[in-house]
Design goal:
Elements: H1 2-18, H2 30-33, H3 47-54, E1 64-73, E2 80-88, E3 94-104, E4 121-126, E5 135-144, E6 149-160, E7 165-167
Antiparallel strand pairs: 1-2, 2-5, 3-4, 3-6, 6-7
Length: 177
């Protein structure tokens, strides 16, 4: 008898909590509080990364000028390759360069890269000598499966043959002399 009464009480409590109230539903989730203006593109966290690449004034003192950046279809997989053509615009020889680029897929979203935690941005380097005023091209393979467009490419770190270094956003003087 006690057991039956206990089961009855538990079932009654469960059914009471599952009944809908007559009050209108209010959803206070973040997605319902902030809605984009109709016709306006919703801001994404990756927009700041894209904007960072589009700010060309950051590259104005770069010792490397990107001549072209081209996506290539990989011959043996569905991954994309990238070909960068770049020029040493200084009077110094360059020993090594670190590059980075930002790509998007066909949905205007950051493209997949080699690292799952940084979408859109890929970094590679070269350690071949680039003489003063010389132009060179390099292909990096298998960097993305869905890249459709290269938004921007840039050098972010350069090591000169004399041991000096240049870094993007550093307060070095213009190295074009």
């Amino acid at each position: 008898m006690k057991r039956t009464l206990l089961v009855f009480i538990i079932l009654t409590l469960i059914s009471c909590t599952n009944k809908k109230s007559n009050k209108p539903e209010t959803n206070t989730s973040k997605n319902n509080l902030i809605k984009p203006i109709e016709g306006e593109k919703e801001a994404k966290p990756t927009d700041s990364i894209k904007d960072n690449f589009l700010k060309t004034q950051k590259n104005k003192n770069s010792p490397i000028k990107i001549i072209s950046a081209t996506l290539l279809k990989n011959q043996y997989s569905n991954h994309k390759d990238i070909k960068l053509t770049y020029k040493n615009i200084t009077k110094k020889n360059i020993k090594a360069i670190k590059f980075e680029w930002y790509c998007e897929n066909v949905f205007d979203e950051p493209a997949s890269g080699q690292f799952f935690f940084v979408k859109g941005v890929t970094r590679k380097h070269t350690e071949s000598l680039l003489k003063s005023r010389e132009t060179e091209s390099k292909i990096w393979e298998d960097f993305s499966t869905d890249a459709n467009i290269i938004i921007a490419a840039r050098a972010y770190y350069v090591v000169f043959s004399d041991g000096t270094k240049w870094q993007l956003n550093s307060k070095t003087t213009n190295l074009q002399d």
